[in-house]
Amino acid sequence: MNTITMKLQADHLIEEALREDISSEDVTTNSVMKEAVQGEVNLICKQDGIIAGLEVFKRVFELLDANTKIEFYKKDGDAVKSGELLGVVTGDIRVLLSGERVALNYLQRMSGIATYTNSVAKLLAGTKTKLLDTRKTTPNMRIFEKYAVRVGGGYNHRYNLSDGVLLKDNHIGAAGSVTKAIQMAKDYAPFVRKIEVEVENLDMVKEAVEAGADIIMLDNMSYDEMKEALLIIDGHAETECSGNVTKENIEKLTGRWCGLYFQWSTDPFCTDS
Predict the structure, then answer these.
(1) Could you report the per-residue pLDDT of 156-177, keeping only the tens digit for each?
(2) Which residues, 6+ apart, have CB-to-CB distance to 119 below 8 Å?
(3) Backbone φ and ψ of 239, nearest 5°
(4) Cα–Cα distances in Å, from 147 out to 130, 239, 244, 263?
(5) Last residue of a domain, which of 78, 111, 144?
(6) pLDDT on residue 261
(7) Can you list the alpha helix ranges (DSSP code H) found in 65-122?
(8) Left (φ > 0), alpha (ψ -120 to 50) or beta: where does 235 sit?
(9) Distance CA 221, CA 227 (A)
(10) 176 is in which domain, residue-wise?
(11) Residues near 273 by beta carbon (within 8 Å), at least 6 away in sequence
(12) pLDDT over 60 (residue 26)
C-alpha cells in the first residue's frame, strides 16, 4: 500500500480504530507511565504463514507519535516462521503500549487472509485460473483485506459498487430479463466499464452470450453444468465461477477446466461466495 493510498484511504480508518480502543484515555498505561520514556519492543512471529500489513502496523504507531521508529526484517508477502523476529519498534513507551493491540489486530487479520489465500492460490499454480475476492469484507476493513488478498497471491474483483457493473438475480428480476438488464447497463454505464452478469442455469448462459455480456459468472452450478456452460460461452466472454468452490475441490475443478476465475470471500474462514 503506497503512502498516498495510506494517507487518503487508510489513515482515517486506523484513527477510528484507535479511538474505539481509547475513548478518553489509556487509563492503564497512564497509571504506570507518568511521562515520556523511550523504550523498545520486538515484533515476534507466533505462527508460520505469509506476513501482510506491516506498513499498517507501522502506521498505527506513527499516527500516535510521528517520532516512533520501526525497523522491519521482513516485507509483506514473505513467508515467516514461528519465533522469527520480524521487526523492532522504538519510541515513547506510552505510545507502544497504547497502540499495540490495534497494530496487532490489523497485522494478524491481514496476515491470516494472506496466508489462507496463498494456500489456495498455490493450488492454481500452472493453470490459467485466477483466484478472486469479493465485496464480502468486514465493514471498514475492505482496503486492508483486499490488499491482503493480493499479498497472498489472489486477485481483486471490484472494490465497490462504483467499480463496475455486476448484474445479479435481483437486478435481472428488476429489469425483466438477462437481455434487458445487459442492454440497460450498456446504455447507462460508461463504455470503458465491462458488463458482468451472474447466471444460474444454461438458459441464462445462452441469453447472456447472445446479449453480449463481457463477463459471465456461473453461480452455484454443478460440475456438469459448468462444463456445458463453457462450451456455450466458447470464448465469447470471460468466465467466473462462484459458489460450490472450496479449498478441497478447487484442484478438481481446475483439472477439468482452464481459464475460469474462481471468486472467493476475503474472509479466510468463509469459502462460500
Answers:
(1) 999 999 999 999 999 999 999 9
(2) 247
(3) -125, 145
(4) 16, 23, 24, 16
(5) 111
(6) 63
(7) 93-121
(8) left
(9) 10
(10) 121-263
(11) 134, 136, 242, 243, 245, 263, 264, 265
(12) yes
Longest dimension (CA), the chain: 72
**pLDDT for position 126:** 86
Query: Does 188 lie in the same domain as 134?
Result: yes
What does the alpha-carbon distance between residue 238 and residue 81 come to, in Å, rounded to a whole number? 38
| Alpha-carbon span 17 to 168, nearest angstrom | 33
- What are 246's three cell numbers? 472450496
- Catalytic hit among 74, 130, 136, 194: 136
Q: How far is CA 173 from the centre of its chain?
A: 29
pLDDT at 244: 75
pLDDT of residue 128: 84
* Residue 176 CB coordination number (10 Å): 10
- Whole-structure pTM value: 0.91
Per-residue confidence band for 263, with pLDDT thresholds at 50, 70 and 90: low
Mean pLDDT of the chain: 92
Mean pLDDT of 27-34: 96
Q: Which amino acid is at 201?
A: N
More confident residue, 93 or 242: 93
**Spatial contact of 71 and 88, defined as CB atoms under 8 Å apart:** yes
Q: For residue 271, what pLDDT band results from cuts at 50, 70 and 90?
A: very low
- What distance in Å separates the CA atoms of residue 58 and residue 201, rounded to the nearest whole number? 48
Same domain, 87 and 211: no
Measured in residues, the chain has a length of 273
- 162 with 247, same domain: the answer is yes
User: Is 136 annotated as catalytic?
Assistant: yes
What is the domain-level CATH number for residue 12? Answer: 3.90.1170.20
